[in-house]
Amino acid sequence: MALSREQIAQRIAKELRDGYYVNLGIGIPTLVANYIPKGMEVMFQSENGILGMGEFPTEETIDPDLINAGKQTVTVIKGAAFFSSADSFAMIRGGHVDLTVLGAFEVDSTGALASWMIPGKLVKGMGGAMDLVAGAENIIVAMSHASKTGESKILKKCSLPLTGVNCVKLVVTDLAVLRLENGKFHLLERAPGVTVEEIQKLTEAELVIPANVPEMTF
Amino acid sequence: MSGFNKVVKTYDEALAGLKDNMFLMVGGFGLCGIPENLIQKVHDLGVKGLTIASNNAGVDGFGLGILLEKKQVKKMYSSYVGENALFEKQVLSGELELELTPQGTLAEKIRAAGAGIPGFFTATGFGTQIAEGKDVKMFNGRPYILEPAFPKADFALVKAWKADKYGNLIFRKTAANFNPMIATAGKITVAEVEEIVEPGELDPNFIHVPGIYVNRLIVGKFEKRIEQRTIKK
């Protein structure tokens, strides 16, 4: 069975480490916040100017002056900090954020990622995605492995306009966990009940398959 | 006005000198921290042909969206314009020029404008269509693209929480966003705030933008419309 959005987030949460500052993109990445391992402290950065983002507010605590990068109302944890957009992107560009999790339409074996524009459809903008992929040492891409019609999104070369180059390292899809190393995707784990052959079939890029590919556990 | 007192009484005074074809920077992220009354006044004055740098373009009927309705805007520099149907329509029809700019690069182009830095190198956007036609230089084995700063804005419009009469500004929570940099980058910077106090009442340790950057100051009433009202389940 392919993973649900929640399960992709749950798998990515296993990559969190105690003391990490983490930026989560919109969509599946946002769900990662629900699966922080017990006993671990991580702090969420929101690029509109929060370090220490908390959960959504109640009707009583809602505040129009406090939103996240997806423009949703949020709260902050004790010990949070607010800052300007310039300071926020200094953090991001300067490599101070330990982990960035973001979605993508396509990734490729050169390390490029496409996430912001589909030609022919209206361009809404890249927001902070280009800054995030250029600035982060440690990026996890959360995405679906293939389109609904079975076309691979794990490619030799991205077909869509790029968000960044040389930035992809770890990819968690609904079918597999892949690590990009020396221009090749290595199959590290597969979704429960999904075979290596199925993953191979839906992967256009060259895939290195070790003798044993463990199933993900939750 | 006299001495360092920046307070003006009316929005006409706040935007005196605003003309067609000017370059404006406008603070805010989504609808959070936008100078909503100054935008309304720009709308009412009816100036046209504006170029505006602002992270977003408001929504239909609120924020910068109301300037689009009157076709007052010629060109926008923004990082994301998703929430505005009219904006999409005007871009697609060619009435409105849009230069999508990565959010961090947008912030830095504004900051640099205020700080007297004509341009800067950044890795953001290298290898993408953003980099087309831009100079590339290697630093420590990594390619960076040259991004020019914006020119100073003819009018920089910001929203702050509190100010003293000298124009020292304090922002509240994420309503700061682009406002602090934009405040530094105007030939004329106009700040609208929720409260103005006497000099000495704000702790100098906690000023976000010093008054030297601010030319005009006005108290406004704010609707603070919420774009994505999200409540804990």
UniProtKB/TrEMBL annotation, chain A:
<comment type="similarity">
    <text>Belongs to the 3-oxoacid CoA-transferase subunit B family.</text>
</comment>
<dbReference type="InterPro" id="IPR012791">
    <property type="entry name" value="3-oxoacid_CoA-transf_B"/>
</dbReference>
<dbReference type="GO" id="GO:0008410">
    <property type="term" value="F:CoA-transferase activity"/>
</dbReference>
<keyword id="KW-0808">Transferase</keyword>
<protein>
    <submittedName>
        <fullName>CoA transferase subunit B</fullName>
    </submittedName>
</protein>
<dbReference type="InterPro" id="IPR004164">
    <property type="entry name" value="CoA_transf_AS"/>
</dbReference>
<dbReference type="InterPro" id="IPR004165">
    <property type="entry name" value="CoA_trans_fam_I"/>
</dbReference>
<dbReference type="Pfam" id="PF01144">
    <property type="entry name" value="CoA_trans"/>
</dbReference>
<dbReference type="InterPro" id="IPR037171">
    <property type="entry name" value="NagB/RpiA_transferase-like"/>
</dbReference>
UniProtKB/TrEMBL annotation, chain B:
<dbReference type="InterPro" id="IPR004165">
    <property type="entry name" value="CoA_trans_fam_I"/>
</dbReference>
<keyword id="KW-0808">Transferase</keyword>
<dbReference type="InterPro" id="IPR012792">
    <property type="entry name" value="3-oxoacid_CoA-transf_A"/>
</dbReference>
<dbReference type="GO" id="GO:0008410">
    <property type="term" value="F:CoA-transferase activity"/>
</dbReference>
<comment type="similarity">
    <text>Belongs to the 3-oxoacid CoA-transferase subunit A family.</text>
</comment>
<dbReference type="InterPro" id="IPR004163">
    <property type="entry name" value="CoA_transf_BS"/>
</dbReference>
<dbReference type="Pfam" id="PF01144">
    <property type="entry name" value="CoA_trans"/>
</dbReference>
<dbReference type="InterPro" id="IPR037171">
    <property type="entry name" value="NagB/RpiA_transferase-like"/>
</dbReference>
<protein>
    <submittedName>
        <fullName>CoA transferase subunit A</fullName>
    </submittedName>
</protein>
